[in-house]
Amino acid sequence: MLVRLFGSLATLLRALTGIAFAVLIAAVLLQVVTRLALPVSPVWTEELSRFALLYLVALGGGLALRTGELVNVDLLLTALPERGRRWLEAVAMVGVICFAATLVPPALEFVAIGEFQTSPALGWQMTWIHLIVLIAPLSLALFAIERLVTLALGRGGT
Amino acid sequence: MYIALLFGSFLIVLLLGFPVAVALGVASVLYLLAKDLPLTVLPQTMFSGMDSFVLLCIPGFILAGNLMNGGGITDRIIRFANALVGSIRGGLGLTSIFGAMIFAGISGTAVAEAASIGSVMIPGMRRAGYPVSFAAALIAAASTVGPIIPPSVPMIIVGTLTGISVGRMFIAGAVPGILLGLGMMLTCYLIAVRNGYPREPWKGFRELTRSFGGAVWALLMTFLILFGIVGGFFTPTEAAIVAALYAFVIGLFVYRGFTLKDLPKLLIDSAVSSAAIILIVGFAASFGWILTSERIPQTIAEAVLSITDNKYVVILLINILLLIVGMFMETIAALIILFPPLLAVATQVGIDPVHFATFAVLNLMIGLTTPPVGVCLFVCANIAKISLVDITRAVLPFLAANVTVLMLVSYFPALSLWLPNLLFD
Fold first, then answer.
1. C-alpha distances out from residue B17 to B20, B189, B282, B388, Å
2. SS3 for B196?
3. Which residue from A46, A48, A54, B316 puts its CA 20 to 30 A from B188's CA?
4. pLDDT at B293 over 70
């Protein structure tokens, strides 16, 4: 049940990450095409593509933890027997969660600063862009919790 | 004192198996807390570290590589390489290296290279009677050409950090990349002759031209990227997205390796891989901010310059330092932390920044095939199902060849600078 919940959250995040990437690609392509083919090109494409990248990273970061693509050094991990490895991995995941929690208050502060700024080309309030520094640790924590749950369930099973 | 806390905590959490990105963040948080500085520094520096137009190259090139791979480019490249060099002694080994060089033109990371070439060629070489440790070691070593021959993710990151032109660095990597490939092919040939490794039958010119028709689309993509940038048609970022569009069209209509239904998965997988890299860039930016505020770059620069201000000795010292760091540290983190201080040293003794960037990236790539933290070594040992000790022993001759090329590139600036100077000036 819990596992299924994380599964659907991952699907949702994957979809959002994909959308961010699609926006990024569309913005850059628009920039190239208009510059090479039209006399004028919109000024906001560069800004939009950067913002899309920030969202892509913040949303995708947690998913990367899930797929194991967020590289770590497994020198000690591989040297340990199966049981020790699980414990050590659990420690690392708890570490990720604590780190993410520590980031939340300063991230909120940074988001609040965005209220006084608007982006130069699109005129968007920067709050919405600064939000990525909050999303990134939350998405990391989410999947660190999932990993903890599966580790706990796996140990119960053996 | 505070710096000892920063590095100490970083190494400890790294060893505990924390993701590299998080380890950088944890160390930064502990430092800020100990110094009683506001934690908002972290989101601020992380945000500005990732808010860069140049970084957009990374998802673009990763997507382009995945689309080409999904289209079945690896098999076609290998078929062509085999038709060309397979009939020489040690033919499948030479095929792997030559294939890796072509593949390098569509992939920006060494790990992608090791995984795609390795999964085809390690079993293939084993079937043909090569020792599996030789096959795995060869491919681990060959995959390091990926980020030297453009496009290159590490060079993009250097460009983001320092403002050195990514286009120039890309072009600068071309000759060293080819040298690297040739050096490994020579090594492979010599080992093959000594041990009597097999060769493939010559398949004839007909097969050569036919297989070239399959591989040419990969070569064309490399040229599209390079000429687009050199010709001023687009920036490296735009080149990455145009390359992805090109790969999409080729994969869908020419290779017919995937359908539109597979596109969302390819898109999202590429995005997630990119996020993993850029997240490290973000947290490393916070870490780097601390180093700068503690004047670590200047301290390192002064320390090096107090030993010597002889350009050639400085090059040697930088190379030794990077080789050691590259053995123990993740490449991107090492790049972000060490590149700015070492660049300061290099420019002070009159080393051209593009030349410096080329040999520094080449050096750190060699670290990918050295134990204990060589990612490419892990990937290939995993595919071959052999121990780290076996693959390490077998990789030594290739390592020697790569270090020789590194020395050549370090001491003959023309190898890296001739081509970009010719094309851009």
1. 8, 39, 19, 19
2. coil
3. B316
4. yes
Q: Which of A32, A54, A74 sits opposite B17 (nearest CB)?
A: A74
ipTM: 0.92
Tell me B372's DSSP state. Answer: S
Separation of alpha carbons A147 and B313, rounded Å: 49
| End-to-end alpha carbon distance in chain A | 20
The pLDDT tens digits for B231-254 are 888 888 888 999 999 999 998 888
Q: Is A97 on the interface with B (CB under 8 A)?
A: no
Backbone angles phi, psi at B165, to 5 degrees: -60, 120
Which of B15, B23, B43 is the closest to A103 by Cβ? B43
Query: How far is it, in rounded angstroms, from Cα B247 to Cα B241?
Result: 10
Q: Are A36 and B233 in contact (CB < 8 Å)?
A: yes
Q: How far apart are CA A31 and CA B25, in angstroms?
A: 34
A65 in contact with chain B, both atoms CB, cutoff 8 A: yes
pLDDT score, position A131 = 93
Task: Identify the three-state secondary structure at position A72.
Answer: strand
Q: Vertex A105, ends A101 and A106: CA angle to 5°?
A: 110
Using DSSP, state whether B17 is helix, strand or coil.
coil
Tokens 């040298």 found at: B179
B32 touches chain A (CB under 8 A): no
Query: What pLDDT, in 10s, does the model give residues B173-210?
Result: 999 999 999 999 999 999 999 999 988 888 888 999 99
Interface contact A30, partner B, CB < 8 A: no
Among candidates B85, B89, B99, which has minimal Cα distance to B199?
Answer: B89
Beta bridge partners of A118: A125
Interface of B with A in 141-170 (CB under 8 A): none
Q: What would the mean pLDDT of B41-62 be, rounded to a whole number?
A: 91
Partner-chain contact A32 B275, CB within 8 Å: no
- CB atoms A106 and B21 under 8 Å: no
Q: Which residues pair with A125 in a beta bridge?
A: A118
B27/B56 Cα distance (integer angstroms): 27
How far apart, in whole angstroms, are the C-alpha atoms of residue B144 and residue B179? 12
3-state secondary structure B16-61: CCCEHHHHHHHHHHHHHHHCCCCCCHHHHHHHHHHCCCHHHHHHHH
